[in-house]
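Quick one, T. Sequence first:
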Amino acid sequence: MISILNSLAYGAIGLLVYSSLLVIYRLCFSPIAQIPGSKLAAATSAPYNKLTKWNDRFGIPLSTHGTAQHELHHKRRMAINPYFSKKSINELVPQIQDRMTTLLNHLRKDYEDKDKVLSLTDMWASFAAENIFAYTFAWSYNFLDSLDEKNPFLESNRELAQTVHVTGHYPQFLKFMQSIPESWVAVLNPSMKAIFDFQNGIVAQIVRMKKGKNETLNKSENRTVFHDILESDLLPPEEKSITRMQQEATAICVAAIGTISTSLSHACFEILRNPTIKSRLEKELQDSFPDHSRAPTLSELERLPYLTAVIQETDTTMIALRASIGVAQRLSHVQPTPITYGIYTIPANTPIGMNIYNQHYDPRIFPDPNNFQPDRWLGDPKVPVPKDSSAQAEKGGEQEEKTRQSPLSRFLVPFSKGPRNCLGQFLAHAELYIGLASLFRSSAGKVMRLYETEEKDIFMAREYFVPLPVRGANGVRVKIGEKHGEEEIS
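Structure tokens:
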């Protein structure tokens, strides 16, 4: 017993000495020790292979999203990029508009002047789900016909998001959960059944596609993303395995549902609680498109200054305090060659990253960042930027008088930038433009009122890679009709 206690004591002392020396090295002798920043972050920085280890935390390591190595990521990304280009999404606009028309018909028939509560969060999730499922596999779950029901994919997404920290730091937990039969997991957590059914459906569909028996493909619509990929030469056969295609499809579809749903919900919340914004938006839409017998094209909508300003402001605020599209966590990567930043040289393979929240809520760039202000985007706004802020910081904060004017849009990065930016940014913007314009041109949008919705129902209170509101939040809820709903929140 004494020898065991002695061994434990020596082990604890050894761990303490090692940890202390490691902290001293990182703070004083590391190649990046001289770079300004949080000393706590510098002392506790993770090893260089941290990013590789984290790629399996979502359980889809074979997807493009989960690919760590640059060359392999580039190959996989290039295979799917054409299907989410601006040109390809423009070709989808008629189908997106048709689904929006179906949705509005249900609102007028089932909700207008009916004193019924409607969850915009679930409604927009259904809209996004129908769009992405049709595009990837020509599926329809008929979600738009049952707006009273909670969207199962939205609920499952939130359940999965709340495990991301555990699976990121303890990958063994994810492997253990994946080893449990799906039927058992579905009993313990019923919300996961929708994800399991979806994944199994993907596998069955890919098997049919690979055999050339895609019975569910609607020939009247465009060929689907995965139908084309499986028949193309963009990827070698080993990259078209059923498992990899299933993980690729899961990554694309799951990301496309929760993000656009919360983004559109947040935009509606801000519009509905601010009568001035609502009236200006409705007036612009009415003046620009007085003929309600036809829907405006996406390019026509993109030329509207105030609608565009509302969407840009949504892009700014939705990334952080509001639980909406995007990532709240720091996005990190490693660079195989040294990086020069001002007077500093960051060694190769050092994990570096940025937090979009800190940029979008920097009052030097976006004054009064906590308030929704579309006007900040009107008139080609500029931001004064010091010519070399990093060098000035090294001089003890002395500011030079010389600055340059940079477009405000340069600092708008809700979809990130570079080769790993959001694949679905053009689809998301098409859904934002068509969704908001269609709703607030319609009679339902004109008489829509918030119902028992508070800031806590959508503002970020928890960070699980994506931002989430407080537990038990109800999302954005409304009633439709002149006599229903509640006064806008100040």
